[in-house]
Amino acid sequence: MSDALAVEVRDLVKSYGQIAAVRGIGFEVKPGETFGFLGPNGAGKSTTIKILCTLVTPTAGEARVAGYEVVRDRDKVRQNIGLVFQDTTLDSYLTGEQNLRFHADLYGVPRQQVEPRLKQVLDMVDLWDRRGSVVGTYSGGMKRRLEIARGLLHAPRVLFLDEPTVGLDPQTRSSIWEYINDLKQREDITIFLTTHYMDEAENCDRIAIVDHGKIVVLDTPEALKASVGKDRVQITTDDDDETIAELKARFAIEAAMHERQVTFNVEEGERFVPRLFAELSTPIRSVSVARPTLDDVFMSYTGKTIRDAESSAADRGRATMMAFRGMRRG
Amino acid sequence: MTAVATTHATEETARKIAELIRVSVPQRSLGRDLRAVSIVWRRELLRFQADRLRIVSSLIQPVLFLLVLGTGLSRLAGRGLPPGLSFNTFIYPGVLCMSVLFTSLFSAGSIVWDREFGFLREMLVAPVSRSALVIGKCLGGATVATIQGLVILALAGLVHVPYNPMLFLTVIGELLLLSFTLTAFGVAVAARITQMQAFMALNQMLVMPLFFLSGALYPLNGLPRWLAIVTRFDPLSYIVDPMRHAVFGHLSVPAAATASIAPGITWNGWVVPDGLSLGIVAIIGVGTLFLAIAQFRKTE
């Protein structure tokens, strides 16, 4: 069983009436991998994750999680997954520990394992000292950490994080990512997450970029960025005009002045810079190398920025709502 | 190179596994469902404990009815009662039922709350049967409401009802039955409601008619025909009546005198035995429980 794929999806389709939210998605996630679904709101990320978590039944296609088919073996899938939703699902009148104990009983964690496991997951998110406090007194970041701990409590094979940092301030967001990266080290687990933050997607081993209910491209963040092309190098020198001429003569590179710096694009910028220092006759004062971001990747595969995609998805969302209402009336 | 990396990865995994607390969750079984019932039930108790204000506030109304309304009206209403029986004592069984009415429905309504704040989702995605969740909820509501009723039961001496263990056991059993039925009913209703205000409004619409039509405040005999018919359709009547028989049976008032004001519910002249009355409530309780489970199977 352990060598089975963590997630296996084939030709997945989900339609609401005339509107297709997911239009033929297929991918595989290996055990231990951190896999990200990146895309604008309304691209079909949430619908896909809901199908994988057995909350939505697919219209067509097949999906297996931890080796179990999501429709036929619903309970087995549920047993083997941990869920952290976008919106909090904690009882704010109970303490952190009571919330976790509730979960342990509901998921049937063997009684003698509850105590040590409880300590382990609470330590992992640094909430052991606050376990006796009522959840209503927790900050947004603490609640999210508690939910991550709870999602891990029954030792699932796959942890689903649906927009794990949405609604949190930037500082808390990055601290949540420290915890997620830390738990990857400690737990023997596959992580499946959705996000529409480019910088967060870079924490994944592989990323699928989703738009209009389809996977546009699927690869490692590095490969995706490499596929977009070259790094941007900017330098300042004692004689910029001379440098531009020299770059053309020696390296066949077309450089130009941008932001008062000599700017050019080159593959593997950080490997190129040492050559530049060695071979350029003009003294260099400063160097910066910018790698392409996932924003550039999204742009190059879909022809639009994430922001543009979101506004058009919002339009389609409205269309879906209208189709729903129409169906109800009909 | 690849081989080395793989070996390293395997060792890494092995090390991780050694440090982990290995949790192996057993397959779904009756034992697991019972554990789910128990934790949902215990959560109700924990939340009840944490909510002191609710405990006090839901006691105010029955205490007002029993001590203020009961005392105030006793001079007027007392004339129709046999000598030695005060009006407070007469309405005592009805007020006992009233004390569990609000709490049961409020407990059931917390499902709406749970949905609004997301916790319901944590329960619904768990690998346990929906019936376990609903049964746990109903048992929890019944327990909490009955604890509430115990406070009113403790006031028995104030209205000249003896502290008799058999009587108390009977009353507690009847209160449990009533509050379980009410919670099940509330849960079935709450399954379809998404806003707490709507549930509260519905409660207001139901609680007072249920209470006033149950004969909690007046005997069910000698009523105008229309009212007599309506009271026969109020499920609460079938718990107030047996409870009144239980309480009056332990009073030092002649049996013939109490029989005249608590003759029992009649169907077209036929007196419904207490056992049948309680059976009717139990059947309604089980029926609404199944309805509630069916409602929750449909959601998500």
Detail the poorly predicted runs of chain A: 326-330
- Biggest β-sheet: strands ordered side by side in the sheet of chain A: 6-7-8-3-9-10
Give the number of domains of chain B: 1
Q: Note the main sheet of chain B.
A: 2 strands, antiparallel
What's the total helix number of chain B?
12
Helix and strand pattern of chain B = HHHHHHHHHHHEEH
Which topology of the largest domain in chain A does CATH recognise? Rossmann fold
Provide the succession of SSEs of chain A. EEEHEEHEHHHEHEHEEHEHEEHEHH
Radius of gyration of chain A equals: 24 Å
What shape does the CA trace of chain B take?
Answer: elongated
In total, the number of strands of chain A is 14
CATH superfamily grouping of the largest domain in chain A: P-loop containing nucleotide triphosphate hydrolases
Taking all residues together, what is the mean pLDDT of chain A? 86
Measured distance between first and last alpha carbons of chain B:
49 Å
Largest inter-chain contact set? A-B, 40 and 34 residues
How much of the residues of chain A is beta strand, in percent? 25-35%
Task: Give the helices and strands, then pairings.
The complex is a heterodimer of chains A (330) and B (300).
Chain A (H helix, E strand, L loop, with lengths): L6 E10 L2 E11 L4 E5 L6 H8 L7 E6 L2 E2 L4 H6 L1 E4 L11 H11 L4 H14 L15 H14 L4 E5 L7 H17 L3 E6 L2 H4 L4 E6 L2 E6 L1 H8 L2 E7 L2 H12 L4 E3 L2 E6 L2 H11 L4 E7 L3 H9 L3 H24 L1
Helix pairs in contact in A: 3-5, 4-5, 5-6, 8-11
Chain B lengths: L1 H18 L10 H21 L1 H26 L9 H30 L2 H6 L5 H25 L10 H26 L5 H17 L12 H8 L4 H12 L6 H7 L4 E2 L2 E2 L2 H25 L2
Antiparallel strand pairs in B: 1-2
Helix pairs in contact in B: 2-6, 3-4, 4-6, 4-7, 4-8, 4-10, 6-7, 6-12, 7-10, 7-12, 10-12
